[in-house]
User: Fold this.
Amino acid sequence: MEKIISLAKRRGFVYPSSEIYGGFSGVYDYGPFGVELESNLKAQWWRKMVYERDDIVGLDSSIFMNPKIWEASGHTKGFSDPLAECKECNTRIRVDKALEEIGVFADEKMEEKEIDKIFKENIDKIKCIKCGGQDFTDVKKFNLLVKSNLGDFTNDNSDPAYLRGETCQGIYVNYKNVLDSMHLKLPFGIAQIGKAFRNEISPRQFIFRGREFEQMEMQYFTRPENEMSEFEKLREYRWNAILDLGINEENLRWKQHENLVFYAKDAYDIEYKFPWGFDELEGVHARGNYDLTAHSKGCGKQLDYFDQESGERFIPHIIESSTGVGRLVFAILAEAYTEDELGGNTRVYLKFKPQIAPVKAAVFPLMKNKPELVEKARGVYSALKKEIPQIMWDDNGNVGKRYRRQDEIGTPYCITIDFDTLENDTVTVRDRDTGEQERMVITELIGYIKNAIK
Ligand code: GAP
Assistant:
């Protein structure tokens, strides 16, 4: 964990937010390579969920929405985590997670009193994460919605606008719009990528649990009787999509929810083996017709579907897949982090699949004080960059140091322009994983790299 966090910061993947002002809990910034990695993962998700599917369309709904949406969805009342405060040092802990760590089950769906009882029964095994104390306040449920003062010109904030706590509510409230403008037939899905905000009690574990994060969610609308068969198809589809990113199947597992919310038909998490153990990467849930029914009641409008063939009217059931971009970035970093021996030295490298690597190839002039080499290398660099945007120029330090740096950011290929290049238009292409080099004519380079990242 420490090695990944330190590499992520040193090499420009993830920085703690507001660091020069002492930081800001639960928020992170993505650096130059982090933003490329993130954007490759989002592009892959969009390709799988929208471009490769004739039955799914995209959406980009707003972060601010009418506050009634969060009432209708149940978030203003029920979207909370159990909290207790250490009486010694005032550190707040998330009680369900503290119980989970000692193997006791409790979750946020239980009543406050019930969780408090379980907490007190196990208090001798729970310690404050900061001071080690064991004297805690009673358990209270803490609502996770983040309030804003948008439009509150009287400063009483009696009806606050929230920053959205999940992106899918924007999908539900646009279901009719999308249906009408696209003339879709069931089953169909709506996919969206966007920021979400939660007042997490103890944001920890790096970018795993943040207060500001990004979600990639797809809501799939089905006939009631097809909900569970579509659910099984979606589970398989999402599992394979994650494997496609280069995650080893041994590091993934399904976890079925033990305690379903009353409306859910079934719910699974895809868990990844993070440095502390298996934990949730993505959720795949069968939600019945709860969401559209709740919004139909909340807004007083019909949100049903008319089946022209059978003449029936009904509220579609929904299955969803929901994953956090930050969690996926973390899983991909953890999966790619590799230490080995190369040329008698230990090295660290990120073994990204070329498709998701933030830099596909780096171009080096062998020496930066030889204008003829630099000019030739610039020509190769520009030609590649026109075709493949994620190409990097690197002339800093000796070639060995450049290899090490590129290994640490996971660049699959390093291309060196040397004196032979000036003679015969060939370059060396060094493979990240094996460290082996081959000579290649310049005209083959674009095809070679394009093929690797296809
Ligand atoms: N619409 C369903 C929903 O939001 P969720 O289990 O609360 O369900 C779905 O969240 C996914 O969003 C999680 O599997 C995780 O990947 C991501 N996620 C949730 N809370 C997060 C947080 N505080 N920080 C980072 N990612 C988070």
